[in-house]
Specification:
With 221 residues, the chain is an alpha+beta fold. It is built from five helices and eight strands; from the N terminus they run H-E-E-E-H-E-E-E-E-H-E-H-H.
Length: 221
C-alpha cells in the first residue's frame, strides 16, 4: 500500500475556529462585496500620512462669538485670532470670522500667512526697547539678559513663543483687547533695528556738522 502523506497539524484559535497559516494568508486574495479584488495599497488604513514637518506653527489665541442684528433676527458667527511663526524671525497675526469655529480658524490662518513679517534679533532677544500703541492698546517690550525667559502676559507670551526670542520683558498698558495687543506686539517687532544700523550720538553729530565750502580758484589775469 502507498505510504500516506503526513498532514500539517491544524492550528485552532482559543475561540475554536481554524487559524490561517502564513503561507495561505500570503496567497489569499481579498475581495469586496462585488467580488472585485482589493489591492492592499489602495486601502485607506494602508495609506501613510504626510509626516513632513510643518514650516510654521500656529496658535489660536482667542475665539469669540459675535452677533449681528438682521431683518430676520440675530446672526451668530465666530471670530478667531490666530498667530503663526517659524520659531525664528518670522511672525504673523490674522483675525477672521466664520459660521463655525473651524472655518474661522482656517480663514484667520490664511490671513496670518499673507501678513507675515521678518524682524531683526540680537541673539535670543530683541535689539532694543520699543513701545507701540494700536488704538487703545499700549505694549512695552524690553530686551533681557540670557536666562531671564519671557516675562509677559497671555497674548504677548503666545506670540513671542512662536519666534526665536527666548529672553524678553514686556508690559501691557491701556486696553485689554486681545486683537489690539496682538497687532501692537507685531508692530513692535517690525520696528526693531539691528545694532549696526543704530544712529549713535557721534553719527548724528557728524551728519549735523556742515561741510566746509570749497574755495573757488582765482583765474590769473
Amino acid at each position: 500500500m502507498p505510504e500516506s502523506k503526513e498532514k500539517a497539524p491544524k492550528v485552532i484559535n482559543k475561540s475554536g475556529t481554524l487559524k490561517m497559516t502564513d503561507k495561505i494568508a500570503a496567497t489569499r486574495e481579498r475581495k469586496d462585496i462585488g467580488g472585485r479584488r482589493m489591492g492592499r495599497n489602495n486601502r485607506r488604513d494602508r495609506v501613510k500620512p504626510n509626516d513632513a514637518p510643518k514650516e510654521f506653527d500656529e496658535v489660536t489665541i482667542n475665539i469669540d462669538r459675535v452677533s449681528r442684528t438682521v431683518a430676520g433676527g440675530r446672526r451668530m458667527r465666530f471670530k478667531a485670532l490666530v498667530a503663526i511663526g517659524n520659531h525664528k524671525n518670522k511672525i504673523g497675526v490674522g483675525v477672521a470670522k466664520g459660521n463655525d469655529v473651524t472655518s474661522a480658524v482656517a480663514k484667520a490662518t490664511a490671513k496670518a500667512k499673507k501678513n507675515m513679517i521678518v524682524f531683526a534679533m540680537d541673539g535670543e532677544t530683541i535689539c532694543h526697547e520699543v513701545e507701540t500703541k494700536v488704538t487703545g492698546a499700549n505694549v512695552l517690550m524690553k530686551p533681557a539678559a540670557p536666562g531671564t525667559g519671557i516675562i509677559a502676559g497671555g497674548v504677548v507670551r503666545s506670540i513671542i513663543g512662536l519666534t526665536g526670542v527666548k529672553n524678553l520683558i514686556s508690559k501691557s498698558l491701556g486696553s485689554t483687547n486681545k486683537v489690539n495687543i496682538a497687532y501692537a506686539v507685531v508692530e513692535g517687532l517690525r520696528q526693531q533695528v539691528p545694532r549696526k544700523d543704530w544712529e549713535t550720538t557721534a553719527l548724528k553729530a557728524q551728519k549735523s556738522t556742515p561741510k566746509p565750502a570749497k574755495k573757488a580758484d582765482k583765474k590769473e589775469k
